[in-house]
Prior knowledge:
Helix content: under 10%
Radius of gyration: 13 Å
Largest sheet: 7 strands, mixed
Amino acid sequence: QVQLVESGGGLVQPGGSLRLSCAISGSIFAFDAVGWYRQAPGKQRELVATVFPTGPTRYADDVKGRSTITADIDMNTVDLQMNGLKPEDTAVYYCKAQEHGSEYWGQGTQVTVSS
C-alpha cells in the first residue's frame, strides 16, 4: 500500500515562504508523476505543481515563478518551496502520486497566509 505523508504547513505572513514536503513509501521512479494540489474552502482541488521522475516540472500559472517543486530520489520525497505567499494561497495542500491510472493521496497539510 502506497502511503504519502505531507508536512511543513503552517501559518505564514503575506510575502513569506514555506517548504512543504511529501514523504513517499516507495521509489519515486515507480510513479508516472508526483504532484502537489491544493483545495481552498468552497473551491475545487487544483493542481499546483507536478514533477516527473525523469526531471521535467509543470506549474499552475498563479504559482509559476514563485514556487519550485523538487524530487529527492534518494529520500523518496517531493518538496514544494513556495515564496511570496499571498492570502489566496491559503488552502489544504495535498500530495498525489500517479501510477498507471491509479492515484494515491496524502492526508494534506494546512497552509494559512495571513497577517
